[in-house]
Every structure is written in structure tokens, then in C-alpha cells.
Amino acid sequence: MRSHYCGDLRKEHIGEDITLCGWVHRRRDHGGVIFLDVRDREGLAQVVFDPDREESFALADSCRNEFVIEIKGTVRSRPEGTINSEMPTGEIEVLGKELVILNKSETPPFQLDEHQSVGEDVRLRNRFIDLRRPEMQDKLRFRSKVSNAIRNYLDDNGFLDIETPILNRATPEGARDYLVPSRVHEGHFFALPQSPQLFKQLLMVSGFDRYYQIAKCFRDEDLRADRQPEFTQIDIETSFMDEEGIMGLTEEMIRKLFLELKGIDLGDFPRMPYSEAMLRYGSDKPDLRYPMELVDVADLMADIEFKVFAGPANDPKCRVTALKVPGGAKLTRKNIDDYTKYVSIYGAKGLAWIKVNEIENGVNGLQSPIIKFLGDEVTMAIMDRLGVENGDIVFFGADKAKIVSEALGALRIKVGEDLEMSQAEWAPLWVVDFPMFEETDSGLTALHHPFTAPSCSAEELKADPVNCLSRAYDMVLNGCELGGGSVRIHDQKMQSVVLEILGISDEEAQDKFGFLLNALQYGAPPHGGLAFGLDRLIMLMTGTDSIREVIAFPKTQSASCMMTEAPGEVSAAQLRELNIKLRKTP
Fold first, then answer.
1. Cα–Cα nearest to 395, from 312, 337, 318
2. pTM, whole model, 2 decimals?
3. How far apart are alpha carbons 336 and 345 in whole angstroms?
4. Angle in degrees, CA 393, 414, 553, rounded to 5
5. pLDDT score of 174 more than 70
6. Which of 155, 212, 279, 382 is the most buried (most CB within 10 A)?
7. Cβ neighbours of 412 (radius 10 Å)
8. CA 230 to CA 122: how far, in whole Å?
9. What Rg value do the Cα atoms of the chain yield, rounded?
10. Contact predicate 46/35, CB 8 Å
11. Is the pLDDT of residue 223 over 90?
């Protein structure tokens, strides 16, 4: 129906007769002349209707925002002094000759022709309107470009795009599964995939060598700004390539994406062992844009009488750690109280602090309610280790290592953002040398997943599983885990050892993923891979704060869709077909 998109018109089209289709973005009446800004997915074009064409002028006069129209007209230069340099089409306009109203519109729940602060619930409830906004169209168009560039890169590097099943059986992936009841097999359920993990390994056993898929994945877990119950994963697996090769290939892909689509050179991707990341930054995805680091001071606190610090300082499962914030002495008591409340989210019971006013005057130049408990000698030893300067503030954490690392690691980012301490726009890195297992109250669990290869022999693994490292790696950008992967276990005996350490019996293993264990006995090649979160990648590249902004139809934090009102109830007849009876909660 159209000859051109509205946003594609330029000076070179002057004099052409064209046809446009789109939505009325804005209607203006200037002294008897009607101006319609017409919008489509490529942008806006200004269309002018003169009263000498009575029929089209009357129709233009009756148009309102979001009417769908078809226009025939001629492209011409804008009059002197009316050029809009901020619009790509700002040098031209269209003289409207014919107008057809294809569909009228009710008054939309919010205006699209000017910026409005609209609540997210209103936007999500009317997502089909929200997606008309140029900002949203730009993000989804950019997402399409990223997906296309990824496909081209992987295709050029010999990867095959292969789909894997959505309906499968539940396998251990670390989160709760979404279950789908089977009508045919009474009492049995499919599980939606948390990732294509086992199938991509089977594709390697099948000899496909290089696989990729932009795959839908599902996890029933607590949501936040960078999580959704259904998300999109760039899934990559390859045979006969070690971690160096996989990391090099995928790093080049991300570097190329940023350079070609954003004009950004990410620079070097430094590598950091997991243990160092946790020690220095309290996180396995540290944001290196902020210069602050955690410094352990347990040895200086071990002999003091103040049990709040001395207790954890003498417990090998605890940390006593300090965080120096340059220039942080300007923080008010209210700021500090707010940060105390913030770290409580991570289990911290409080937040001790020392303000550095005049370090040359010893403890007399320090301000804090805890100095009297530490003593002058210990206090100054801490200040010396941290290298404090006038105007700094030091925060302290003393508790179980996990609580201290998470609390002060999160505080580091929060304070860095609040005080605008970022020293770079982009800070990529690889985190490597992850532990194979982590200790929990119920025993050992796999830090990544039970198919990750250890960096030691089976004998060494059995002798000391807690201290064994894995061949896993995560790509981190600005404190966000972009993707993670590992070299996989390709030997059935090694896989059995790992499952045994995890307390998974032979019967349970056969029940949950016997098909993989069976496949490993028939010439499985060395293989490994990596999966990127496409939604997070687009979120970072477009500078948005939530992945809901880069997904066409996202769910809320309660895992529901406000537009379709999903999840919803189903009929009694459907439940009977599935042999399901609902139990009402009291």
C-alpha cells in the first residue's frame, strides 16, 4: 500500500509522488493549514494539507492521534526557516493530495506525541500502544540487528543453527522448572527447558561439531530487573576446542558487535580468578568501572576485645573486611543510615564506619563510634593498610564470608553510582577458575552445573572435591554477567564421579539424564560452550535499566502478563482431560 516509509524520506525524494501509510502522531492547525506528523516504524514525516483540496483537508481536520491513515502526495522542501535539524526528515515535507482514514482510534491511555511519565503497569497493560513509541521501536529494531549480526558471525565461523526440544523431561539446572502436564501420559509431565544444555552436548556426540541457537529458556525463580521467567539465550557449543578457543571466539563476537553496531571498542578483556574477584570485589561479576576494593583486616582485629569484630576475625568461615570510599566523608548520617538499611538486604546486621577528617592528627582526626572499641593502635594500622586520605570514609563488614562479600560488594556498587565514581564507560572481563563445588547446609552442589569438567583428575577430585577448580568461565560487562560456559565432561567415568560427589545415585542419574550418560559411552568428543543472555546484552547496549524494556511482551516481577492476564484459570473440562484436580488452599 505504501511507496516509502515515513522515516526514509530525504532531500533526494523532492518532486516525487509518494504514498505513505502510518499513524497520526500529532495534528496541528496553523492558520487554516493542517499539519499531520505521520509515524511508522522508520520515523516521522510532516504532511501538509491546504484548504484548496476540500475533501482531503476536511478528512485531515477530522484526524486525531493514532488514527491509521493512507496519504498520497508530493515531496517538497520545507519553507525557509522551518527546517527541523533534529529530525532525519526535517528538510522536507509532503504536500498531501489524497487522504484515506483506514481506521479510527479511541483516545489512547497515554500520549505518544510527547514525553510523559507513565507508570510501568499502565505501559505493560497497554503494551501494543507502548510499543508504538519511537524509543521502544528503536530498541526492538536494534535487538533485531544484534540477532542478525550474531547469526552472521556464527554462520561465518562454521556454526549450524539447530533447534532443540521445548517439551522435555526435568533435568537439574539450578532453578525450578515450569511443568507441562501430558494428556496422553497420565500423571506425567514435560518440563520447559532452563537451557538446551543436554541436547547441545548430545549434538556434539552426534558429530555436528559447531552448534548455535537463539533459544527460548524458562526458569521459575524470583525475578528482578535483569531476570524474566522466559528469556532468550545465545547458545553455543563446539567440539575439539578448549576454553582458550571458546573464549577467544566468543570474545571476538562481542567485541565485533559493539564495534559495528555501537562504534565502541571494548578494549582488552582482562582475566580474573574467581577467588580474586570475591576477595577484592565481593562478587563473581565485579564491576571494574569503580576503583574501590575490599580489603581484609581480620588479622588486625583478632586480638581486640570488641567481639563484634574479634569473633568473626577468629572464625575461618567469616570475613572482617573494610571498604575505603575516596571522598566519602561528605556522606551525611542519613546517607549512612540508608546504606545500613541497604546492606541488610544481604543479611548484614549493621554497617560500621570511620570518617577520615585529618589523618595527620591520628585518631583525633577520625570520626566514628567504633574507634574507642578498636583502640588507637589497631585503628591506625587499619588506616595505614587502606592508604586513607583526608575526606575518605571507611565501611566495615564482619560476619560469615558470604554475607560480608555480598553486602560490601553491593555497597561498593551502590556508593560508586551515588557518588558518580565510574572511571570508564565499559569494563569487560573474564572470570575464570571457578570452584567445582560449593558447600551448602545439605552438602556439596555444583557451582555451575554437574556437567562442567573439573581442572583435575578424577582421583584428585575424589580426594579433595571442595578445593578442586572447574574449567568454567564467565564473561562480565559492567558488573553484569553477559554469559557463562565451560568445557564439559566428555568421559562417562568422570561424569559418574561428579554425580557421586553430588550425592546423586546411579538410579537417580539414570532417571533424570540417563540418555546423556548413555551417549557418553559411545565416543563423545571433547567439547564445551558458552551461553549469552541476549536480553541482558541488548539491555546493556541500549543503556536501559531493565530487560523488560528490550523484550516485546515481558512479564512483571510477579511473573504475570498484565496485557493478556496470564497466567489464567483453565476450564474444568481441560483439567479433567489432564487428570488434574485442584486443591483449594484454606
1. 337
2. 0.91
3. 15
4. 175
5. no
6. 212
7. 26
8. 21
9. 30
10. yes
11. no
Contact 171, 511 (CB under 8 A): no
Whole-angstrom Cα distance, residue 350 to residue 341? 8
Lowest mean pLDDT among 197-211, 328-342, 437-451: 437-451
Strand-strand pairing, 92-103 and 43-49: parallel
Q: How far from 533 is each of 221, 285, 425, 483, CA to CA, in Å?
A: 16, 14, 20, 6
* Exposure of 376 in the CB half-sphere (CA atoms within 13 A): 6
Grid cell at residue 117: 511519565
Q: Phi/psi zone of residue 391: left (φ > 0), alpha (ψ -120 to 50 degrees), beta?
A: left
Amino acid at 487: V
Query: What's the mean pLDDT in 390-397?
Result: 96
Q: How far apart are CA 37 and CA 28, in angstroms?
A: 8
The three-state secondary structure class of 198 is helix
Among residues 406, 398, 405, which one has the least CA distance to residue 298? 398
Q: Where are the alpha helices (DSSP H) in 424-505?
A: 458-463, 492-501
CA distances from 31 to 49, 74, 92 (A): 12, 21, 20
Q: Which three cell numbers stand for residue 494?
A: 568422570
Q: Specify whether the CB–CB gap between 399 and 318 falls below 8 A.
A: yes
The alpha carbon of residue 273 and the mean position of all alpha carbons in its chain are separated, in whole angstroms, by: 22
Beta bridge partners of 510: none
The residue behind cell 591520628 is 362
Give the contacts of 537 (CB within 8 A, at least 6 positions apart): 146, 234, 254, 257, 482
